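Bench notes, afternoon.
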Amino acid sequence: MDKKSDPMPSLPRRSFVVAGLSAVLAGSIVALGVLGNLSEIDKETFGFSHGTLFATGDEQRLRAFLARALQDDRIDVVILGHSGTAGETSANMKLSEARAEMTRTIALEFGVSPAQVSSTGLGGSAPLDKLDGESERAFQARLARVEVSLQMRR
């Protein structure tokens, strides 16, 4: 087929590879939870105002949330970093990885054992639903987050 007459422009192959790897990674985390006898105790989302800077009050909220992991060494902390969907896929992936790693560093500095903490960046591959009447700018800002879950090993 002639490229000029193709109604669907092709996306870069890299986008599909990144999206596929992200989906496999997210599925692996869920599978490890099921197969590894983990049960989710609690889950919170923490936002970012820009780059790797937490939104006002979210770093303190994160520390309070992580305090629960210090109560029992069977509690694992699973961190998933996210970014917006606009812009370059590879840049979004790096940003989500940086957010996840920064959150992991805070957990370690707070006293959580390295064996209890895992972090992964998912880029923009797991966006939230856009709210009715939400501007694109507000939507993209809401996507800048880390999801932190506490999981109990049995």
